Task: inverse folding
């Protein structure tokens, strides 16, 4: 008996039968596939945008809520979806892009599997609204788990298709909880939209958050590629771009054509931005990215990264697009040769554009002509040959405001004993600033001085203090603005206040106007002709008044005769050829409406002999009859004198 038990113990537990193989239910299969195709909200946006591009859209609009988990709404103006295709639209492996496996070898569309929409219906609620050309109305239908929830309902619709994806991953709790930072998900969506926006420059893209009036990405679809890059990535990238091209037509090595833009040696970022399209498909190529980074590592400072945009065209049969569930990667024929050729082209272009470098340095502060020479500050012991100690890193910057070595005057050169030259420069600078701030000090005409004195004498100190110390609240309507002073609220007439401001500025700057230089001189004769055309449209000119060209010629001659007076008193410079070069700057950092320039020149010619009248003309040219945006600057004006 004991022997039998020992033998059973040595043999161990009885062998288990292998588990049976079962066929998974269709819903389980579809949900597993959906998790591979739609990994994050930006994956769904990418698939929908690619469908819109395949539909021939020229305008694509994307609206996102809660990082795409709550809502993804993509609208386009493409050819739409046929009514008879709506029942199978969201079934797996239904597509209009190919019909046989051989078509995959020459596929040119972005989508081809027919899995994207189907996958979305298994992890979200999908609603489609579409209309095709020639239809009188569109259709709206909702889908769940690949099938329609009800028959398509007729509805009003604009050209194209609108797809709304709501509550993404509502039935995949673990996946939904993993998206903790919704702002990061929205940033990923913006990145995808931005990449397509700079590649498809003939398509208008916009992307914004739900409820926002301003789009975070917006391209017009009519500019150049540089304009699109500037709109998406900013002017800092656009101004440092260098165009690069490469190609090869040798079948034994590679056949391709590459066009793109790369950043020059003057640009650097903390992270490489590489936008790569192969046969118009947004993909990633680690080998190509590393090869280009190797080239930049010899040019850019350490830890600095470039910006790269490339579009590579290859024969469709040389590209295998069916190697990744999200189509993020592709396989290329003769990939090593393609990468080497592009790397050589980038290196050659960078070497050609590396002849100049731009450095941004701190300007010297007033009173300092050069940086302190450390040799002049050496102690006697250092001059005798004592080895200088290395300054600790934490003491090379200002860390304590109480330490004299960290104060700003330690970085300035001490003034020489004489100091005459520096004092002279400082006096000139102060004089220029004083004249700019107080032009009345330089006015030398008795009549102008009388007007200035009248303004000063009639200034209301209490109201002036309100204007100086007020806080702008907002516009109450098109004319009245709301201001707060201490605990009181005041309504102020912006039009009258602006007119008074312009008047006082014109009086104080009389004969000392700064000039607005026109980029292109404006012919006075043509301006007068435009003004006369406006007079005719307003019914103020008739044929009995005389030919318009003769009237314009006489007025131009009158302005030319008074050119010296206009230049001296008003800063209006007209050359001998009758071209207007400059206008008076009545208010700093404010440019008048140039659409009023013809009317201004016409009125000026008619009232050339009346100096007081000319000041009023100048004021009107600066006042625009439109809704004000609110005060600019600090509001310290000398106000509240009612001139006649």
Result:
């Amino acid at each position: 008996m004991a022997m039998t038990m020992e033998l059973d113990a040595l043999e161990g537990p009885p062998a288990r039968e292998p588990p049976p193989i079962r066929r998974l239910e269709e819903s389980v299969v579809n949900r597993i596939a959906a998790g591979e195709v739609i990994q994050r909200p930006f994956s769904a946006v990418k698939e929908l945008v690619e469908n819109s591009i395949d539909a021939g859209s020229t305008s694509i609009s994307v609206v996102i809520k809660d990082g795409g988990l709550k809502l993804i709404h993509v609208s386009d103006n493409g050819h739409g979806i046929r009514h008879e295709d709506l029942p199978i639209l969201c079934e797996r492996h239904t597509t209009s892009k190919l019909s046989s496996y051989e078509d995959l070898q020459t596929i040119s569309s972005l989508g081809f599997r027919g899995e994207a929409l189907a996958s979305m219906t298994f992890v979200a609620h999908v609603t489609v609204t579409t209309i095709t050309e020639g239809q009188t109305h569109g259709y709206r239908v909702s889908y769940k788990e690949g099938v329609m929830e009800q028959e398509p309902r007729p509805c009003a619709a604009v050209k194209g298709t609108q797809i709304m994806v709501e509550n993404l991953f509502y039935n995949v709790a673990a996946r939904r909880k993993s998206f903790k930072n919704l702002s990061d998900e929205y940033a990923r969506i913006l990145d995808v939209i931005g990449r397509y926006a700079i590649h498809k420059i003939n398509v208008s893209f916009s992307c914004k958050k739900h409820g926002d009036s301003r789009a975070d990405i917006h391209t017009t679809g009519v500019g150049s590629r540089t304009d699109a890059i500037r709109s998406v990535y900013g002017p800092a990238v656009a101004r440092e771009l260098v165009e690069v091209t490469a190609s090869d037509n040798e079948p034994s090595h590679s056949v391709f054509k590459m066009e793109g833009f790369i950043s020059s040696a003057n640009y650097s970022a903390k992270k490489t931005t590489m936008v790569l399209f192969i046969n118009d498909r947004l993909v990633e190529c680690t080998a190509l990215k590393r090869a280009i980074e190797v080239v930049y590592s010899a040019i850019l400072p350490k830890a600095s990264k470039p910006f790269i945009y490339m579009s590579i065209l290859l024969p469709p049969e040389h590209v295998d697009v069916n190697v990744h569930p999200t189509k993020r990667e592709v396989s290329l024929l003769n990939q090593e040769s393609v990468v080497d050729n592009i790397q050589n082209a980038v290196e050659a272009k960078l070497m050609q554009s590396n002849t100049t470098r731009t450095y941004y340095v701190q300007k010297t502060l007033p009173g300092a002509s050069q940086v302190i020479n450390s040799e002049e500050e050496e102690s006697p012991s250092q001059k005798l040959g004592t080895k200088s100690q290395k300054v600790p890193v934490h003491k090379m910057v200002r860390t304590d405001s109480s330490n004299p070595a960290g104060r700003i005057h330690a970085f300035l050169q001490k003034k020489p004993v004489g100091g005459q030259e520096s004092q002279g420069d400082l006096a000139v600078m102060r004089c220029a600033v004083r004249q700019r701030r107080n032009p009345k000090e330089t006015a030398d005409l008795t009549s102008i001085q009388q007007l200035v004195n009248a303004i000063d004498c009639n200034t209301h100190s209490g109201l002036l203090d309100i204007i100086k110390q007020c806080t702008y609240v907002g516009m109450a309507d098109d004319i009245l603005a709301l201001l707060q002073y201490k605990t009181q609220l005041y309504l102020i007439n912006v039009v009258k206040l602006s007119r008074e401001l312009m008047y006082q500025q014109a009086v104080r700057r009389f004969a000392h106007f700064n000039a607005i230089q026109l980029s292109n001189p404006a012919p006075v004769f043509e301006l007068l002709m435009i003004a006369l055309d406006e007079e005719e449209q307003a019914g103020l000119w008739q044929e009995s008044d005389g030919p318009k060209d003769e009237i314009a010629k006489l007025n131009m001659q009158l302005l030319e005769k008074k050119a010296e007076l206009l230049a001296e008193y008003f800063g209006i410079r007209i050359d001998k050829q009758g071209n207007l070069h400059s206008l008076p700057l009545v208010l700093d950092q404010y440019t008048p409406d140039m659409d009023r320039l013809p009317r201004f020149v016409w009125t000026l010619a008619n009232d050339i002999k009346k100096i007081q009248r000319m000041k009023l003309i100048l004021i009107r040219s600066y006042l625009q009859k439109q809704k004000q945006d609110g005060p600019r600057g600090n509001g310290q004006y000398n106000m509240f004198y009612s001139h006649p």
